[in-house]
Amino acid sequence: MRTGNGQADDPAAADQRAEPAISSPSAPSRLVAWHSDLAAWLDRLGWLRTLSDWLTAVLGPVRERHQDNLVVELLHGGRWVGHPLHPALSDLPIGLWAGVMVLDATDRGPASRRGIDAAGMLSAAGILAAGATALTGLTDWTVSNDQDRRVGLFHGLLNTAALGLQGASLGMRMAGHRGTARALGAASLGATAAAGYLGGHLVFTKGVMVNRVAWAIGPRRWTRALPEADLPDDSPAAVVAEGRPVMLYRHHGSLYAIDNVCSHAGGLLSRGPVTDLTVTCPLHGSRFALADGRVSRGPASQPQPVLPTRIRNGWIEVRGSQPAPRRPANGRTQP
Ligand code: FES
Question: For residue 267, which atom of ligand 1 is closest to its CA?
Answer without folding.
Answer: 1
